[in-house]
Design brief:
SH3 type barrels, six-stranded antiparallel barrel, mainly beta, 2 domains, disordered N terminus, Elongation Factor Tu (Ef-tu), domain 3
């Protein structure tokens, strides 16, 4: 892009291994909308565990479900040897090319920096991190005196305003 701007991208899948002899790769989806993401014509990139580019941009020319995974083929990579080095890497797509989240949804990485406030309007702090725990997603809020964790669930997160990057939290007594 001009001016050195970088594209924001999201990890949408984990490449596992080649499938067959015609350049297909087995991909485990890391998106809740694989039918909308793994479509013919979509440009994607492949990155390693450190986020370094391995290949791309690549155009998806074939996509189909296969058990719990998807089989993808890319333009110009039509043999098994062309895709063999991509095992255990990740597939990314540009945020600008994906459907935006629905009105009540937000990308997890966008939560960092949201201002948290009580229903009364009192400032509670800023979201500085999120953690995927066995009981569900937890938000780390840096308050005026200390940090605290809040479950990212409807009974606690009452309102979300993506445009203003704010949320209203109804916290239990004592938190």
């Amino acid at each position: 892009m001009e001016g050195g701007a970088t594209l924001r991208s999201l990890v949408v899948g984990r490449l596992r291994k080649p499938h067959g002899l015609k350049g297909e790769v087995a991909v485990f989806p890391l998106t809740d909308d694989p039918e909308g993401v793994f479509v013919e014509g979509r440009a994607v990139r492949i990155v390693d565990l450190e986020g370094n580019a391995v290949a791309g941009p690549l155009e998806i020319v074939r996509a189909r479900t296969f058990h719990r995974e998807w089989l993808l083929a890319f333009r110009g990579h039509d043999s098994r040897t062309a895709v063999e080095g991509w095992g255990q890497t990740f597939l990314t797509a540009s945020v600008e090319d994906l459907d935006p989240p629905a009105e009540e949804e937000v990308y997890l990485h966008d939560l960092v920096g949201f201002a948290a406030r009580a229903p009364s309007g009192q400032a509670l702090g800023l979201v500085t991190a999120y953690y995927e725990m066995p009981a569900g997603l937890m938000l780390e809020i840096q308050g005026p005196k200390r940090e605290f964790l809040v479950p990212f669930r409807k009974e606690f997160v009452r309102e979300m305003d993506r445009e203003m990057r704010q949320m209203v939290l109804d916290l239990p007594e004592g938190l």
